[in-house]
Amino acid sequence: MKREFLQTQQEVKKVEKISEAEEKAFEVLLPRHRGQAVKMEDFVNVQGFGKDVVKKDRYNVAQKKIRIREMGTEPSKKAKLLEAILAEQIELSDWFGSDALTIIPTEYDDLYNGVDLAIEFEKDTKPTYAALGVDVTSSAGSIIKKLAIIKAYILRGDLGRIKYFKSERDNLPPRQIQGIPQLVIGTNKDLIKELSELWLAVNRERIQKKQAYTGLSMEAIQSQKEKMHRAKEDLATHRVQVLLLKEIQVQLEVFAKFSRKNTPDVVEKFESLLRLISSIIEEKEITPENERKNEDDEVYKQLRISLVDFESL
Asked: Can you say how many angstroms the Cα of residue 172 is from the centroid of all Cα atoms in its chain?
């Protein structure tokens, strides 16, 4: 009985505390986000894959999800919200520049290759890719673990891969791609709450449908529409886009320096992506106050601290 009580207490402690706005945004946004992911069934008739490979990978995904649940190491709802809002705003609001598109990977690539989100940049008709792992924590252990995996990829010279890859831009068949720079991004928990509230305000009409303005006067309806418009502008221009771009930039600087000494064959991939990200940051406008807030972000600070000792990870 005592053991069962302690186990129950441990389970209670693992329950993630999120706001009502975050819960609602998660409920509405996440199914749509996952519905836009690459479909493994599209690879059944692709050379190098086939029905048996896809079936085996589906089985492995199911088994790994069971192990993750048993261990209580599922990604937080906040991390998933950041991932989904980022994927949407990269395309709707050009958070990562006007040439960026998002590719939402299969669960296989999420679980086995650490890719929560892939970004496709197209400059001079040549696509450049970045694979992102999304983290919403200030835990040193979590960030160091992710950076150590990236370091191992760099030393092997193969970087990251996406097994089930499909782009909307090219006419090439579904395929596997390798040699993709992997990066860690994230922000603090309060900022996820703020983004969720803005997202709900922007999507109020779509979520509530006919009930959105039921019983309101014309003046109240106009006021609600103005609030929605302001929220849309605030979300589109939010400082978090610069924060995440700078997290990518500081990692690319370190990874390029490290690969230059250890695996020079891959250094150009980091340097070319670094030039691209730096040019996007230069185009962004941010107030000194918002710049200060970004510099104080716990995840950003922990990431920079961890990168100082990247070679010894």
From this structure: 25
